[in-house]
User: What shape does this take?
Amino acid sequence: MSGKTLVIGDTHGCFDELQALLDTVPLTADDRIIHIGDMIDRGPHPEAVTDFFMSTPQATSIMGNREDKHIRAYDGELSYEGAREMTRQQFSSPEAYATAVEYMRTLPLYIDLPEATLVHGYFEPGVPLAQQQRNVLLGHTDGDLHLEAQGFVPFYEHYAGEKPLVFGHREYPFLQYQRRAYAIDTRCVYGGTLTGLLLPDFKIYGIPAREDHWMTLQARFPHIPG
Assistant: This one.
């Protein structure tokens, strides 16, 4: 597919902000949309967000730690608690949730574009992309511990890849770091901003959150500890 690529930061079920971002960025049918991971959890419309990426031909997502945890919970490896249980209850039916989980299983751990390398969580410097540890790419706690043991915290200060690295997963004190790293999780679900990075120009777009969605969701499910 030719054209531009819009890389979207962690959406966490913020469907209205996702639509506002897509309405703002000048895209055509030849352009591609890639979500950086964490489509779900803590936001108001997880089903609508996953439906969008499942049903839009030019759109896809990388797997985030949230998707991975839903897969593991569905398979009985993790319990349903907190945001995971809230998300499951937000879906219109068990069948709709199961369909979303099966879609999550198909998501890649990274996408390597000519202009940039896209991962959800972290990147271990000096290790080829195909040999990166799964839990490092997803940003799981043991990925944090592995990078810390290797002396690569923060990892982006050590990144020396040929292409810029684009990632989400957590908030950083920058959007662009020394022209090599782009951190595009700008905490929309907590009342921040939903960020999009348009390639190959590396133009940044931002849509302010309508509210602190996580606070609102916790009030909706007071019987489920967050």
